[in-house]
Amino acid sequence: MYSIETKNITYNFSPNETVLDNINLQIPEGSIYGFLGPNGAGKTTTLRLILGLLKKQKGSISIFDKNFDKNRIEILKNIGSLIESPSIYAHLTATENLILLRKIYQCPKERVAEVLEIVGLSQTGKKKAGKFSLGMKQRLSIAIALLHKPNLLILDEPTNGLDPNGILEVRELLKKINLEQKITVVISSHLLAEIEKLVTHVGIINKGKLLFQGTLEDLHKMQNQSSSVCIETNNPEKSMKLISDLNLSSSLQNGQLMIPNIDKHQIAKLNKSLVENNIEVYQLALIKNDLESIFMDMTKN
Amino acid sequence: MKFIYSLQSEWLKTKRSAASWLSLIGGFFVPIIYLITFLKEKTSINSYYPFANIWKQLLLSMWGNMAMFLLPMGVILASSLITQMEFKNNTWKQLNTTPQSYTTIFLAKFSVIMLMMMKFFLFFNIGIFTSGIIPSLIFDHHLPMMPVPVLFFIKVNAKLFLSCLPIIAIQYLISLKFKNFLVAIGVGLLGLIGSLIGLGWKYIYLSPYSYPASLVAGPKDQINPQISAVVYTLVLMAISYYLFISKKEKG
Predict the structure, then answer these.
(1) Nearest Cβ partner of A77 from B8, B15, B99?
(2) What backbone torsions phi and psi does residue A202 show, to the nearest 5 degrees?
(3) Separation of first and last alpha carbons in chain B
(4) B98 with A104: Cβ contact below 8 A
(5) What percent of chain B has pLDDT over 90?
(6) DSSP readout, B96-139?
(7) pLDDT (mean) for A21-44
(8) Cβ-Cβ contacts under 8 Å, A81 against chain B
(9) Exposed / middle / buried, residue B49 (Cβ in 10 Å: 0-12, 13-18, 19+)
(10) Which residues of A touch B251 (CB under 8 A)?
(11) Which residues in chain B are contacts of A83 at CB distance < 8 A?
(12) CA A122 to CA A171: how far, in whole Å?
């Protein structure tokens, strides 16, 4: 079952500007879904559409297997969200900010202190939220999102403004609530490295198009597939011919041969062929593309 | 029950807010000036014209001073401040993703402005009684000579409250629509000043800002101002509601 499923979501701010183009998200229940893309790719617009903050133009959105438009209130009871910058009342304290939302969600009084403890804001006392640092505001926003124990958390760049320690803490917190409370987490970011250690599933969006969607494992497979090999021999020209005999492509760069998209069996075959043809192999190095460069390649094109 | 929770939540937002302070300061401002004048001149309401109820005279005198400018200006400020709180704190997106219908959000917020107005009226009336009683006790050593005309107080307060409704409604509409606080305040101030200048005009009831001042100094032979105020408010609220629910971007 999917916590969120969108079908052909398309959105234009103006007739000539397509912000989202047929987005089909499938976010499995219980997953931590990293929604990745560079700034301006359409991440926030997608999340705002999912939450009903933007009026849908085309396509459909289902959350918990229910149509969002027809079940908005029921669905929102089970969603905690943080969209872009913190949403808090600056003239109120952290506790007061939570109390006023507690009234709407009708959750137990103790929950206010609990979530403040979770995000490390228990000691803020009478300090008004407007006087908080950006990191503290972000933590308070996460506390607000967690207040009513939602089944689905939608967090748009939640680590913005946090220091490295804060980022680590948020990551651990999200892992913990996902594991212990089986909460589905959707987290958007423009940095793959930041969420690579956290997510189970990944969606990559650029210029309003979903370029990749799958498990982190799928992305790793793609990483392995896109490995290349660098070979240095005493006879590059003859080596190139042998490589081409194996139906592989190669290019000569600074006296070294670069062979893209090669798997380990092909590497073994190639090495054997070179040696059998009396070519001295000085170096055979595997160059693995890291996930970040795959992401960069996808979003650059 | 749902609406009550939303209303409670909206009311909590006004804690320590500028609108809350405004209702307190605005409510006691004119009564304190009267009190100081009584104390300075060593007199009390017992020295008022004895052939009419002295409380009525005090009430009408104070409201007369309030209704022309201070009351509508306070209403403009309070309505705009409460509504604009969401823009100022970037919280529309938070509010619109809570499990409440848009109708509930719209009505709860409007109700809070009404409650804030009631709070102001309460403070103002406490101020009237205080400025009537304290000088009387100090200088005459007894309570004011005449009984408090409770029904008259209620009637005058109700009329003034109704006269504020069109201003609340128009400010609510503008503040929901425009992010910039200055738009709401600017339109309100221009509307109020324009209405005061044109107060003698026979169609002045077309301006929502004219109603409180009209009670004091407006043309008397016009349509029933209370009914007109309520109708005006309902029309403005209907437009406001339509604009609110049909908004393409809700935060």
Answers:
(1) B99
(2) -135, 140
(3) 26
(4) yes
(5) 85
(6) TTSSS-HHHHHHHHHHHHHHHHHHHHHHHHHHHHHHHHHHIIII
(7) 95
(8) 97
(9) exposed
(10) 48, 53, 83
(11) 93, 97, 251
(12) 19
